[in-house]
Amino acid sequence: MIIDMVAPVIILVYTISIMLVFIRAVKGPTIGDQVLAIDTMTYAVVTLMIIVAIYLKEAILVVTAIPLALWIYALDIYIAKYLEKKSEIGG
Amino acid sequence: MALVEIILEYVGLALLCLGAIASLIGAIGMHRLRNFYLRLHAATVITIWGGVYPIVGASILAIVMPELGVYRWFMAGAGFVTAFIILILAPAGSHALARAVHRSRTALVEPCIYDAIDSGMCVKKEVSTQ
C-alpha cells in the first residue's frame, strides 16, 4: 500500500515539530508557556504513536495513547488550580 | 479491492498529510508568535488540525488494512475514541490554563489595544501622535 512509503515522511515531520515545541518548553518565559508547550507536545506524541502503530501494523500500540491523552489534561487542571490559588494568597 | 476501500485509503492518506503539514506550521508558530495569549492559537493548530484529523485518518486507514486481520476494528474504534477525547479535552485544558494565567497576572498582554477584564495587564505600544 501507499502508506508504507508515506508513513516515514510523516513520522519525520512530526518528530521535527515535537523537537521545535520542546525548545519552547525549555526556554518559555513564563510557566504558562512551558505548560502549554508540554501539553501540545504530548498531544503530538499521541498522534505520532498512532501513526507508528499504523506503520508497524501493531494494533496494541493504540491502547497506550488514550491514558496519555487523559493524563495531560490533569496536568493542565493542576497547574491552573495552583496559579489561581497562588494569586489569591499572594494578594 | 473494492472501490469503497480505495476511496477510504485515499481519504485517510489525505488526512494524515494534512495533519503533518498543520503540525509543522503550528510548531513554527510557537516560536514566531510574541506572547502567551497568541501562542494559544498555535497550540490549537497543533492539537486539533495536527492531532484529531490525523487520528481519524489513521483509523479510517486501519479499516482497509488487510494485514491487521480482526484487530483492525479494534484499532479503528480505539482511534476514534482517542480523537473524540482529544477534541473534548484539549480546548478545555487550554481555556483553564489561559484563565488562570490571566487571573494570576503571570503573563502580560504585550501588544494590546483594549483589555476589558483587567486594564492593568494591558501594555500599550507607544504610538506617535500624527
UniProtKB/TrEMBL annotation, chain A:
Cited InterPro entries: MrpF/PhaF-like (IPR007208)
Keywords: Cell membrane, Membrane, Transmembrane, Transmembrane helix, Transport
Mode of membrane association: Multi-pass membrane protein
One Pfam family matching this protein: MrpF_PhaF
KW Membrane (keyword) present: yes
GO molecular function, one term: sodium:proton antiporter activity
Subcellular localization(s) per the UniProt record: Cell membrane
Transmembrane segments: 6-23, 35-54, 60-79
Primary localization: membrane
GO cellular component: plasma membrane
Protein name as catalogued: Na+/H+ antiporter MnhF subunit
UniProtKB/TrEMBL annotation, chain B:
NCBIfam families registered for this protein in UniProt: CPA3_mnhG_phaG
Keyword Transmembrane set for record: yes
One example GO MF annotation: sodium:proton antiporter activity
Listed name of the protein: Na+/H+ antiporter, MnhG subunit
PANTHER family: ANTIPORTER SUBUNIT MNHG2-RELATED
Transmembrane annotation, as ranges: 6-28, 40-64, 70-90
Organism (species): Desulfurococcus amylolyticus (strain DSM 18924 / JCM 16383 / VKM B-2413 / 1221n)
A Pfam family matched in the record: PhaG_MnhG_YufB
InterPro entries per UniProt: PhaG_MnhG_YufB
Keywords: Membrane, Transmembrane, Transmembrane helix
